[in-house]
Amino acid sequence: MGFKITEEMFKSSLVNKGDISRILKLIRKAEMGEDLIVAFLGGSITQGCNSTVQEKCYVELTYAWLKEKFNRVNVRYINAGVGATGSLIGVHRVEKQVISQNPDIVFVDAAVNDHEDYSCKVAYESLIRKLLTSENKPAVVEVFMTMDTGFNVQEQQIEIGKRYNLPMISFRDALKCEVVKNKMKFADVLTDEVHPNDDGHYIISKLLINFINNIYENDYKDGEIIKITDNVLNTPCVFEDRYINGIIINNANIQPKEMLGFDNYDEGFQVFQNGWKYTIEDNKDGKLVFELEARNIILLYKKSISINSGKINISVNGKSKAFLDTYFKDGWGDYSATEILELNDEVKRYKIEIDVVKEDIAKEITILGILVS
Questions:
Q1: Which of 4, 40, 178, 325 lies at a C-alpha separation of 20 to 30 Å from 271?
Q2: Euclidean distance between CA atoms 127 and 299, whole angstroms
Q3: Of 106, 105, 193, whose CA–CA distance to 146 is shortest?
Q4: Neighbouring-strand partners of residue 355
Q5: Which residues, 6 or more positions from 364, have their beta carbon under 8 angstroms from its beta carbon?
Q6: What is the pLDDT of residues 216-263, one digit of tens each?
Q7: Is 90 exceeded by the pLDDT of residue 363?
Q8: pLDDT tens digit string along 63-82?
Q9: Which phi and psi angles does 36 have, rounded to 5°?
Q10: How far is the first Cα of the chain from the last one, in angstroms, to the nearest whole number?
Q11: What is the C-alpha to C-alpha distance for residues 238 and 235, in angstroms, rounded to an integer?
């Protein structure tokens, strides 16, 4: 790899060293001969999109180093990267994909997939609190990638990270110190507006590796007592944690009260299986009706570049809530989209009705699940 990472870049990348006790616990565990589980939660960058081969994506490179560093134990990794998903979907899928496997450390990358709106701030804080309070008490490291303009939403995520004194590493800030000196452009290490090339993946992996290795070399003391503090739930939120108990409901755990024109879609899309799919050619009715109890309800559906993608009207307890066109016209590809239907501070019973808009040509609609908390 030809890219030279300067000491200034390493220094600039460290937004916050934070409370490293959980990372020290991970090191102690490996030194005691116990196996490790390392998790990476994010979008398409985490997934490895646009690296020339999977082995050159930052997840694989970071994992390879950890595996070599702690070569006396078995180090397993979880790549929970799902393209075009941010914190709102992430907090609802993290239990099944990450927490259930008892990771020792989780790298969270959502700075380019989240937005500046309040729902993303709440979702990100809910996700962080959910991870920190999970049974295995994993270390959590915030990771901030960048767009080719230098934009991301790391400031709002830093605000949350500081509240819980988390380690935070910024790919954006590492590059910025070179960009401001006109030694490079953000685009030099990206393949498009957001996805790193091999150099970009190499850089973020080295930043993460350098951070962990410095703790190993300078902070870990064999035999020293490691105190893990867990006062997260007693710590006031920066925003809210309304999604902290979020899960995904699908045909594996709910039966529609009415299903017309839809069939179970167990194959699903991305990691979201067991949904429902409407495929009708003759202008037939399509309807899904659910009854459930929750505080918050968010529809998870497929947005598609297929011209056959249809439209739906959604009502909750008899009141119209949303009109959705699932066609992603001139888009870059299919993705999992969300629509917030209800946000409440107490549990209520809801009747959700999804009605297909009749059209004269063949249409398809995919409902991936319902995010509830």
A1: 325
A2: 18
A3: 193
A4: 287, 313
A5: 277, 278, 279, 304, 306, 308, 309, 310
A6: 999 999 888 898 888 899 999 999 999 999 999 999 999 999 999 999
A7: no
A8: 999 999 999 999 999 999 99
A9: -120, 150
A10: 45
A11: 9
